[in-house]
Structures are given as structure tokens and as C-alpha cells.
Design goal:
By secondary structure, the chain is mostly helical. 60% of the residues lie in helices and 0% in strands. The chain starts with 12 loop residues before the first helix and ends in an 11-residue tail after the last helix.
Amino acid sequence: MARKKKEPETYTALQVEAALCVWECLNEWTLGSEAQVAKLEKAAKKDPHSMAAIRVEWIEMREQCGSAEMRSQSIVLGLWCLEIYDILTANDEEFFSYWSYDWEVIPAMLKHAVCKDGKASMYRGDYIYTGGGLIDAHSAAQLVAQEFAWLRYEDDCKSQARQQWAYEELVTDDRKSRDDPSDSRMLSAFEQGEAPPAFVKWLGEKYDLTPAGPGFR
């Protein structure tokens, strides 16, 4: 008896777009000169939780499995990202409306594309070429939601700093490193649930700043 021919898999335009955005991001993360990669590796050793460390993991994965395998698994990652997207927009369709889908939303999701051991992953189910399987979309959605809540809070604080003190950089200058908020008062205020207007008012008064004129309000 002749074996029935398997129908080819088909994908929607939305699924194809997600896979292409994933592949675009992975290329951005993993392609670079030897000097650029060496710089990333140095930064990763200094801070194992940094973006540089995440990129190094993906670079190593690409070297192990090859570009064709990573390109193919972009489909799997794209579908996983769409699940996260659907979870976070189920009760708020505008959850991601403030950010660029390909340059901000998809990369933010891929930062959490890890297995249960916390290492970068691009596999689901029984087929795993290297590493472990991806964490479930609901677990990843919680991490992504927290990250975007922080980004929204930071933007709101900057807006308040501009309106109240004509000094948008107030909230980012108030920390040792502009790119690392871990030691900032703004992060503490975020974690304590303090509203941006009240926090920024307190911070400006702490530095004895002059309130902004009517033109900035």
C-alpha cells in the first residue's frame, strides 16, 4: 500500500513575520567581527547577566549548530514569541503599542528564550539539537511583562522630569551607570510602587532644582 504523502506545513502571514523578525534579531546578535566578539566575551565575563552574555550564548549556539539550523528554528522561536504576545495582549490589546515590534518587542522576548537551566534555547518538544527545551510561554510572558512595565515606568519618569524640572536626564543621571539602573533610586521607586509624578517631584527637590516654567508643562 502506497504511503500517504505528508502535506507541507503552512504558516500564516503573522507567523512568517514573527519568524523573520526572530531571524533578523539573531543575525544582529550573532554576526560580527572577531574583535567585536572578543569585546562581547570580555563584557560577558565581567557581567554574566548582561546583554553581552546573552549574545555570546547565541553566538556559541550558532557556531555549534550552524546557520541553517538556527534559521530553521527561527520558526519555532517565532511561534513561541507569538504565544507570549497573545498572553500579554489578551486583556490589553495596547500592551505593546508603545514599542517597535521587530526592534524592541521580539528582542525583549528572545532575551528570555532559555531552557530551565537559564541557557539560551530555540527548541520545543522532542527534537533538541543542542541545549535544552524552551521554558513555557506563560513563564516567559511574566518576565517580559515585568521588563516592559519597567520600561514604561522609566519613560513616564523621564516625561515627568521634563515637565516638572525641564531636565529629562534627572532620572538617569541619578545612578552610577547610565545603562545600569540597579543602583538607581528610580528602580527602588518602581519596586515600591511609587507613582512617577511623586517620585520625580521628590528627586528634583532633593537636588534643590528649580521647577520648570509654564512652557515645559
